[in-house]
């Protein structure tokens, strides 16, 4: 790539970095923040420009203003590893690098680079988790295929037997046929949709509205489904039926967890520079399904995306595994965080091609 020395080009380069970059002036007021920095702070630079460093970066373990003063006076760069930054709704661990910038002999500003450690851990874990989940799905699907054929034979033989015996033992043959049908249904769910995605340009909010209508009709009166949609999300190429199925599985789980009284929130946002597996996307749609239920039991949380893992007596443990598989087929990913009263399933769907 040919780089002209225009400020706009530098800005584009800075905005493409995964690390957050901040520029503070000699009064420690924020002068510039790149896209990754905005994402880290969870808001547009408009809200943060001109604020003092202590209002931008909340680091409970250090005296950041004191460190900045010393750096401006000495002109010597410094680094801080494993530093905790408190954000609005979470704490993150980062590596933090401060470089003084000079005009002539005078140190006039400080360049701060922040690399989020939790994010690096998440990226590698994701790739590993996705391949493990994929492997267990393949194994189970293979097994289901093997069981399906003899099951068809057993059911057919029971029907023939019933005819031969003129219905004499039909209380037994009926059990064989009904139980075979139940197993067949389960195996069909395990094998999953056998047609490739039928992709077309679709609106994610139409998909969510369909899911909302379906679940609204099923839940008790005390359960409300609220919406917080970002209308700026562009249309995306996807299979709407598959995404309805995936999101429906997640929203149904939320409704089941809540029971008679509570709230489900469907929220959409655009995320920039998101890494999914090993691909980095400029823009991704983020769909959050938030519920006020009791949360996912601690012993289950690492395993819920694996097939046949269930915490419900009547559950088959296939809903999330199918949802993850359908979202993966769209190049996306589902993640989850949970605490009592606040369980969030986030579905990330790329808008456009990867490896920007
Ligand atoms: N929003 C949630 N709140 C609390 N627990 C949840 C939530 N979503 C999922 N879980 C837990 O994860 C388990 C797995 O969910 P999954 O949808 O894969 O299977 P299932 O709901 O048990 O069965 P199925 O969807 O196949 O009928 C659930 O049984 C439940 O214990
Ligand atoms: Mg389910």
Quick summary:
The chain is of the alpha+beta class and about 350 residues long.
Could you describe the 3D structure shown?
This protein is of the alpha+beta class. The protein folds into 2 domains: 7-120, Beta-Lactamase (2-Layer Sandwich), CATH 3.30.450; 195-356, Heat Shock Protein 90 (2-Layer Sandwich), CATH 3.30.565.10. The chain is built from 9 helices and 12 strands. The chain has helices at residues 7-16, 35-41, 53-56, 64-74, 117-164, 170-191, 204-216, 240-258, 319-328; strands at residues 20-25, 30-33, 78-86, 91-103, 106-116, 200-202, 223-228, 236-238, 262-276, 279-291, 333-339, 342-350. It has a 5-stranded antiparallel sheet with strand order 2-1-5-4-3. Strands 7-9-10-12-11 form a 5-stranded mixed sheet. A hairpin with a 4-residue loop joins strand 1 (20-25) and strand 2. Bound molecules: adenosine-5'-triphosphate (ATP) and magnesium ion (MG). Adenosine-5'-triphosphate binds at residues 249, 253-254, 257, 291, 293, 295-296, 300, 304, 309-312, 315-321, 343.
CATH topology of the largest domain: the name is: Heat Shock Protein 90
List low-pLDDT spans: none
**Ligands in the structure?**
adenosine-5'-triphosphate, magnesium ion
How many helices does DSSP assign? 9
* Overall tally of structural domains: 2
- H/E order of the elements? HEEHHHEEEHHEHEEHEEHEE
Helix/sheet category: alpha+beta
| CATH second-level architecture of the largest domain | 2-Layer Sandwich
């Amino acid at each position: 790539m040919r780089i002209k020395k225009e400020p706009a080009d530098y800005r584009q380069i800075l905005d493409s970095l995964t690390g957050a970059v901040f520029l503070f002036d000699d009064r420690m007021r924020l002068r510039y923040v790149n896209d990754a920095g905005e994402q880290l702070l969870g808001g547009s630079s408009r809200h943060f420009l001109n604020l003092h460093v202590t209002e931008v970066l909340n680091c409970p373990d250090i005296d950041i203003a004191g460190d900045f003063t010393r750096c401006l006076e000495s002109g010597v760069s410094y680094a801080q590893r494993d530093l905790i930054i408190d954000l609005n709704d979470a704490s993150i661990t980062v590596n933090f690098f401060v470089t003084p910038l000079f005009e002539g002999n005078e140190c006039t500003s400080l360049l701060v680079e922040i690399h989020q450690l939790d994010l690096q851990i998440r990226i590698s874990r994701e790739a590993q988790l996705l391949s493990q989940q994929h492997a267990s799905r393949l194994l189970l699907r293979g097994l289901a295929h093997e069981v399906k054929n003899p099951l068809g034979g057993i059911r057919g033989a029971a029907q023939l037997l019933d005819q031969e015996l003129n219905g004499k033992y039909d209380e037994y043959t009926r059990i064989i046929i009904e139980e075979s049908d139940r197993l067949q249904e389960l195996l069909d769910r395990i094998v999953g949709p056998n047609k490739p995605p039928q992709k077309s340009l679709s609106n994610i909010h139409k998909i969510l509205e369909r899911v909302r209508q379906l679940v609204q009709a099923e839940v008790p009166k005390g359960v409300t489904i609220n919406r917080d949609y970002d209308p700026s999300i562009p249309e995306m190429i996807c299979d709407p039926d598959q995404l309805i199925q995936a999101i429906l599985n997640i929203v149904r789980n939320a409704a089941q967890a809540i029971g008679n009284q509570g709230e489900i929130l469907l929220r959409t946002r655009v995320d920039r520079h998101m890494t999914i597996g090993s691909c980095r996307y400029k823009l991704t749609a983020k769909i959050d399904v938030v519920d006020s239920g009791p949360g996912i039991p601690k012993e289950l949380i690492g395993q819920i995306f694996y097939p046949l893992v269930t915490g419900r007596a009547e559950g088959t443990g296939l809903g999330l595994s199918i949802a993850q598989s359908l979202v993966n087929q769209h190049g996306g990913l589902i993640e989850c965080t949970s605490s009592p009263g606040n369980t969030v399933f986030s579905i990330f769907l790329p808008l456009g091609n990867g490896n920007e």
